[in-house]
Amino acid sequence: MSGRYDHLDESSVRERPSRRGTRPRTKDRPSHEDAVVGMVTGVDRGRYTVRVEDRTVSAMRAREMGRTRVVVGDRAGMVGDTSGDEGTLARIVRIEERDTVLRRSADDSDTVERIIVANADQLVIVTALADPEPRARMVDRCLVAAYDAGLDPLLVLTKADLADPDLFLRHYRALEVPHVVSRSDGDSGELDPAGVDEVRAHLVGRTSVLVGHSGVGKSTLVNALVPFADRATGAVNAVTGRGRHTSTSAVALELPDGGWVVDTPGVRSFGLGHVDPDTFIEHFEDLLPGTEDCPRGCSHDEPDCGLDAWVASGRAGPAGPERLESLRRLLRSRTGDERS
After folding, report:
1. Hey, what CATH class is 36-95 in?
2. Boundaries of every domain in the chain
3. Which is more confident, 15 or 75?
4. What totals of helices (H) and strands (E) does the chain contain, helices first?
5. How far, CA to CA in Å, does 235 sit from each of 76, 213, 245?
């Protein structure tokens, strides 16, 4: 059956003009070779504080960054108004390659890592010797995170006026972790200047991250190290024995004599779900040769582990037994074994 349109062919069909431009799409992105690079010192609800030489720039993340997360310590490339004048806003268009990344997970079963800070080179683990009671398990976990991230650990023990530090320190002597003991005035709460100066000597010229439970005196220490830091401090709950969160976000503060300290919110857990326990032995170079006699898949904390014979032979040195026990304690802190 013939129709009314049988006489038409393809050349008779008129195409509706496109409303879109005719310029072809491209996946190329601007190189932003003129981007100004600065250090991210603060993050607050989608706004970033970036230090560029002698000025502070406010910035937002550009759409082209996608889901790339920007954290304190990042070296960020910015375009737009980077003058730092009041009311101006730059755009972060890229993050430079990170030298180090300190991570933690929500718990040991969660392999999703949460970046705490980038480009630091030292992890300062702050713990009180009393009020609240020290938690060696937390310190062990922070040490594992430091070793995994390639950061040098420093142990700062506060409130030494309330308890003897020697009992706690004996767990870490075999690890040769440097430490500073800090005392405070019971009446005023002010820190002993000598202890503050000793901590400061470890921080000069470095980028250091301070972590610890709430109430251990971390913000008090920061206020003593950095004039006008004005970090909020809080007391320990007499019922729970835990401190109240006073720092709500990480912030990088410049030290008067050079270097940076990153104060982080107090934590009550430090998940290590993102850390591979098989890498722990790499941080014990004196024990590493002894693993050659270990059975395949050895966890280094089992009856047939070759490290026992290696240490018993004396080839690991006089500190071998304590070093081996320290290794196994760190392994148990990752696996949740209560023997730790």
Report:
1. mainly beta
2. 36-95, 101-263, 277-335
3. 75
4. 6, 13
5. 36, 12, 10
Q: Smallest Cα–Cα separation from 287: which of 306, 260, 263? A: 306
* DSSP letter, residue 167: H
Alpha-carbon radius of gyration of the chain: 27
The answer to whether 259 and 310 have CB atoms below 8 angstroms apart is no
Element (H or E) spanning 323, and its range? helix 320-335
Alpha carbons 79 and 88: distance in angstroms, whole number: 12
Tens digit of each residue's pLDDT (9 = 90 or more) over 28-54: 667 788 899 999 999 998 899 999 998
Q: Pick the closest to residue 60 from 78, 48, 44 (CA basis).
A: 48
| Cβ atoms 93, 68 nearer than 8 A | no
Distance CA 182, CA 171 (A): 18
Q: Are 262 and 252 in contact (CB under 8 A)?
A: yes
In one-letter notation, the amino acid at residue 307 is L
CATH of domain 101-263: 3.40.50.300
Q: Which helix (H) or strand (E) holds 329?
A: helix 320-335
**Exposed/middle/buried for 195, CB within 10 Å: 0-12, 13-18, 19+?**
buried
What's the one-letter identity of residue 82? T
The Cα–Cα gap between 335 and 2 comes to 80
Residue 19 in tokens: 């409303």
| Interval 164-210: pLDDT, tens | 999 899 888 888 899 999 988 766 667 888 999 999 999 999 999 99
3-class secondary structure for 71-127? CCCCEEEEEECCCCCCCCCEEEEEECCCCCEEEEECCCCCCCCEEEEECCCEEEEEE
Q: pLDDT tens, 224-252?
A: 999 877 665 544 433 334 444 444 578 99
CA dihedral 221, 136, 215, 336 (to 10 degrees): 130
